[in-house]
Amino acid sequence: MTQFTLGWEEWLALPDLGLPAIRAKVDTGARTSALHAFAIEPFGSEDKPMVRFAIHPDPADPGLEIICSAPLKDRREVTSSNGETELRFVIETTVAMDGRSWPIEVTLTDRGSMAYRMLLGRSALDDDMIVSPSHSFQQPELSFDEYRAIPRHKQHRRALRLAILTREPSNYSTRRLIEAAEARGHTMEVIDTSRCYMNIRAVGGEVHYDGRRLPHYDAVIPRIGASVTSYGTAVVRQFESLGTYCLSGSEGITVSRDKLHAHQVLARHRIGMPTTAFARSPKDSGNVISLVGGAPLVLKLLESTQGKGVVLAETKKAAESVISAFQGLKADFLVQSFVKEAAGEDIRCFVVGGKVVAAMRRRGKPDDFRSNLHQGGTAEPVKITRSERETAIKAARAMKLDVAGVDLLRGEDGPKVLEVNSSPGLEGIEKTSEKDIAGLVIQHIEEKVAPRPPKPRRRAP
Q1: Using CB atoms within 10 A of its CB, is residue 57 exposed (0-12), middle (13-18) or buried (19+)?
Q2: Is residue 176 part of an annotated ligand binding site?
Q3: Architecture of the CATH domain 4-154
């Protein structure tokens, strides 16, 4: 058997943790291996516990800080060489040295005052390994400069702690987001928006749920239903005040849910949309109808969703009757021109991080001008034009939404935005496009909350 010789100090890599270079002390007098770690924080579910921690891999450069995460294997008492006993988190990870790699157990402890960020104990050594206590670096040397040479897109992704705010934990979109997050090594907690309560104060505000203070999340995915928009956006604002990245911001949710406000924002950004009018007094109904070019026209409740509260009036008399009914219910509504050339079709563009990642054409039932899938419509893949793509991206940006479902009509004079949805469903778009949209959403979150690469140190001239 060929022997693998180690010196009393060696360079090694921990690729599972995204650490390409660590200088370790090899100590056969110590049974347990230890890795420098601070800001240690357990997270995850009971059946998949995780631990997150930070490390300064270069003792001479405290500005080089790497965030790591790993599955949590155990927590046990470890007695150090000076006789002190400490309860430490234990992880299993892979050590790599000169093309050879093997799994080891490592305990996490603060070694910030020590010259070596890692101690390699005898339990981490295979049978064919021998240690030469009078020699150093018997294996190839590495360099801390490797951290600064890693391109951002190839950096190790640490496991994230994520949460979904929803009152529908079992629906398709929620399940797919959880699946996509866990497939990429993250943990996801489902939180009922209406059961959150908040401690609002100038410093150290909190969000509580089920009798406990919620931990810090790397990102929160709001899927706020229309019935709890006001309270849901208050919860999102609280997370925002704590510095948590929210996939849909409170402002974007609020604006997109108010159709009048949304159309005013679209108009301010010169984004094409059907001619729209709004009035409150019943005396103005005739003028409102004339503003949109007369019948046929579409009337929409300001907070309608999934095609509910949307009515097509084919004649002026029918429009006046619907307007009268809405006003009798003291319901605010919009009046819009009917885009005949759309022929009961619209296009849903799914925007993630400023890009249209999928699109589908939706058709309504033969006797229904609405194309919503919830109203029995059908969908098929569609190739959108450059103008439609740019309009969808511009509309999502105008609403300040990183993820949005933008509904377009194909008008004679270009695309017209019907609606921008801040919590677009995934089922229709995934099944139609056959794309992993949930995975793209999680990937976008990773890009938003991943740590930035450390800045290169200035070298002395």
Answers
A1: buried
A2: no
A3: Beta Barrel (2.40)
341-447 topology per CATH:
D-amino Acid Aminotransferase; Chain A, domain 1 (3.30.470)
Q: Is 110 within any annotated ligand binding site?
A: no
- Residue 346 is labelled as binding a ligand: yes
| CATH T-level topology, domain 275-338 | Dna Ligase; domain 1 (3.30.1490)
For residues 452 and 381, give the distance between their C-alpha atoms in angstroms, rounded to a whole number.
37
421 has binding-site annotation: yes
Structure tokens at 449: 């909350």
Single pTM value for the model = 0.71
Instruction: Please state the φ and ψ torsions of residue 203, each to the nearest 5 degrees.
Output: -125, 130
> Is 210 within any annotated ligand binding site?
no
> Binning pLDDT at 50, 70 and 90, where does residue 183 land?
confident
Longest dimension (CA), the chain: 99
Tokens for 147? 């951290």
Is the pLDDT assigned to residue 86 strictly greater than 60? yes
Residue 61, marked binder: no
CA distance 425 to 243: 26
